[in-house]
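Write out this protein's structure.
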Amino acid sequence: MIGGGPAGAVAARVAARTLAAMAGDGWRQRFAVHIFDSAPCSSERIGVSVRIGESIPPAATPLLRRLGLHREVEDGGTHLVCPGSISLWNGDRPGHNDFMLDVIGRGYHLDRAAFDRQLLTASERSGAVVHHAARLTRVRPRIGMAIADRGAVTPGRADGPPENSPENQPENQPENPSGNRRDGCGYLLDLSLSGRGRADSVFAADFVIDATGGPAAFARRIGVARNILDDVVFHCAFFDLPSGCDLVSHTLVEAVADGWWYAARLPGHRLIVTFCTDMETTRHLACAEADIWHGLLRRTRWLKTVLPDSVTGAGTLPARIVTRAAPSALLSAVCGDDWLAVGDAASQYDPITSAGITKALMHGEVAGQAAARRLAGGDREGLRAYQRRVFDDFLNFTRVRRHLYGSETRFPDAPFWRRRLGRA
């Protein structure tokens, strides 16, 4: 497992539990599940990469319960209950979407660092081994070995052919543009493990799950193409809320001519405020600059009236604007005989759908099952079913995305909105 975010952690937990169910109590003598996380430690994940999109809707509740993860979210007061959303979208008055009437569960604004820690800890309880400060630097196929002929992954060494073996030389390796042309041979992974004081270590893996997010670091290295439908950009800032602040806990959204704004309370008396636009508008407005970003926020019609003065008042510039690309993208293939991609590594959704984390959990569950069944029983149908699921879900996402952007009709000539619907 390369990547320790929600998709990778859930896939690892489910893979370990599925292997235990299939192979019995002695499954650890035959198999091992390893997570290589890029953060120095799970408590520092946010310091390494600011996460944009910090909420889960009630639809995630049944999934969390099925995965045995609901108590991590519901208990302890770590996460903040989200009662729903209020949005100024295609109208003069804000509309409400009330989660409190949803019978399947609650929505939450997440403490994302804590959430990631909770998922990784749950995967460890299921038998996965987590390695921190790991970065993938090279991928090589293992040639000519069937899964049944090899042992489990051995950290820190390659139990396959040595690097200078003839079968591991590039001229003796078959072309592999899609990752699907070899018959389950596994891979040798070069990883930098700075947390252990080692520049590089080589790991042998019978099956690799790419959970590296948008870069899809493994899949792209084996030649899998990435298809981009659209590419919006987020410029976000974090604020500390003053003591006694009565800001509602709803997600707050407002559409404007140049994009749309998102704001939400976070645990720990914090607030995230995000402006979604695209690169063309970013260059035109220079909205990645704190003073310009803040000026645009102060020109919103409704959002500026509900946020505290400590955020919208004159002279209250954010300390930092964090800019992140948020493409709508899909790999041309999300699995092969001995690998799969999951989460944003496989498919990325425009955050307008608020589905990113839920999608990571759902696909992580299916991915973990498919990988375990391939390892333990040689089953390929689970992988094929997983790819169909990812592709079908992406197609459904494109329909939802187009409906949401198309439902805002107040700015028919604005370049941002025309580009979202392919009318530029």
